[in-house]
Amino acid sequence: MDNAISLIASHVKERSPFLLLKHVDRRHSFNKLSPLGPVSARSFSALYPLVQKLNCKVVLGAKFPCRSTKPLSSEWSSLPNYFMWIIAESYEVEVPSAELEPRKEKKIGPLSLTPSSSVVRDAIKRILEKSNSKLIDKIVASQVFKLDKPISQLNLNSSFPQIYSIHGGYPFAFQFGNENLFLGSSPEHLAIYKNGDLTVPSIAGTVEFNGSENAARNSLLKNPRLVREQQIVISFISATLQKFSPQIKVEGPSIASNGNLRHLSSQVTAQKIGLKDVFSALDFLHPTPALSGYPQSSALEFLEHTEPYNRGLYASPIGILDLAQNKMELLIGIRSALLTSEASYYFAGAGVLADSDPIEEENEISRKAQLLFKKLLFNRIVD
Fold it and tell me: What's the pLDDT score for residue 382?
C-alpha cells in the first residue's frame, strides 16, 4: 500500500484531483479522480439518473446552499452546486503512525486567528434577536478565519499527520483545483447507506474536554439547552426519513469525541430504502439543522443575508458512492480548512438558540477553529 502523506504531497504538487477519505470501518482510501472533471446537477435527485447507469465508484458532493457574492477563491465558487466525479483509480493507503514524532519548537508568532468579517458576538446578537421573534428556533452561525500563508508555504508531509492524530475524527483531503486543497478531520457524516439502510447521524451540542469524560458527559446530558439543540436536529431528520420509509430507528444520545471537544451524538436509520429514495432524501436533509438551523428555510434565508462569505464545501457533504456494492458514505466538511495559492482559511460554527450565551458560542467557534489550526500549521511553516 502507498503512504497517504506522500500521495497527498505528490498530487498537490502535480495539481491532480483526488479525494482521500477515512471510512466508518476505519479503512483509508485514496481516490484519483477523472481528469474530465465533475458532472454537475441542480440537486442530488437530478444526479441519480446519471449514476444509475454506472457500475463504478464515484465521488458525490454538494456545496452549502447559501451563496454569498464573496467566494474565497475562484475555483471554490466554480465547483458545481451538486456534483458527481468519476473515480479513475481507488486503493487503500497506509496512515501515519498514532505515535507522532515530537514537534521541533519553532516560533511563528502568536497562535491566534484573525476573523475575515465582523466579530462573532455581533453576529450572534443578531441571531438571538431573530430567534426571540419566534421566527427561527436555531441558527448555526459560522465564521471563516484567514491566515496569510498560501499552500506553497505549508509542509504537508509533516503537518497532515497531525490531522490524523485528532481523536474521533474522519480525516479527509480533497484536491479539486490547481491550488485548492480542502481538508480536515470531520466528526460527522451526512449519510451512510449500506445493506438497504440509510443512517443519518446528528452531532449537536458541544463542550470542551477538561480531563474528565464523566464531567463532559454530565455537562452535555444535563444541559437543557444542549439537549434541546440535539432534539431539534433529531426531530427534523426523523420527520424527513419517514417520508421514505415506515421503519425508522433512533439511537442516542451518546457522547462523541473530536480532539479536545465532546459532542452530543445521535443517529436515525431508515430501513429498507432504495437508492433512488436515498438521493431524494439527501435533497431534503442537506443541510440539516446541525449545520444551518431550524426551520431550515428560515435559517438559510437569514444566513444568506448575514454571513459575508461563501461557505462552499464547508458544512457540506462529500464522499463516495460505490455503485457495484450499493453503498455510500458522505462526510460533512467541518473541522476543515481551505488552502489556496493566496491564503489559508479555517472554518468553524456553533448552534445558537434564543437562550444561548453569546460569549460561550464565540468561545466554541474559536476552539473549533483552533483545533485544526494548531494541528495543521503550528511549527509547520516552510522557511
Answer: 36
- Quote the percentage of the chain above a pLDDT of 90: 39
Q: How many other C-beta atoms can be found within 10 angstroms of the C-beta atom of residue 19? A: 24
Print burial letters for 20-32: b (CB count within 10 Å at least 16), e (below 16). Answer: bbbeeeeebbbbb
Those residues whose C-beta lies under 8 Å from the C-beta of residue 164, and which sit 6 or more positions away, are 95, 96, 98, 171, 185
Look at residue 107 and tell me if it is in a domain: no
* CA distance to 45, 135, 244, 247, per residue, from 239 (Å): 19, 20, 10, 12
pLDDT over 90 (residue 237): yes
pLDDT of residue 126: 64
Residue 90 phi/psi, 5° resolution? -140, 135
Tell me the C-alpha distance between 8 and 334, whole Å.
20
Collapsing DSSP to helix, strand or coil, 221 comes out as helix
Give the span between the Cα atoms of 43 and 21, in whole angstroms. Answer: 23
CA distance 286 to 62: 9
The CA distances from residue 319 to 24, 57, 214, 298, in Å, are 11, 10, 33, 27
For residues 62 and 80, the answer to whether their CB atoms sit within 8 Å is no
The answer to whether residue 204 is domain-embedded is: yes
Distance CA 78, CA 71 (A): 9
pLDDT in the model for residue 69: 63
40-56 as b/e: b if 16+ CB within 10 A: ebeebbebbeebeeeee
Q: Taking the complete model, does pTM exceed 0.85, yes or no?
A: yes
Give the range of the structural domain holding residue 151, as residue numbers without chain letter. 2-94+117-377
Report the alpha-carbon distance of residue 320 to residue 330 in Å, rounded: 6
Per-residue three-class SS string for 121-149: HHHHHHHHHHHHCCCCCEEEEEEEEEECC
CA distance 62 to 346: 19
For residue 250, tell me if it sits in a domain.
yes
In a domain, 102, yes or no: no
Q: Rounded to the nearest 5°, which phi and psi values hold at 266?
A: -140, 170
> How many Å is the maximal CA-CA distance in the chain?
59
How many domains is the chain built from?
Answer: 1
Q: What are phi and psi of 75, to 5 degrees?
A: -70, -30
| CATH code, domain with 321 | 3.60.120.10
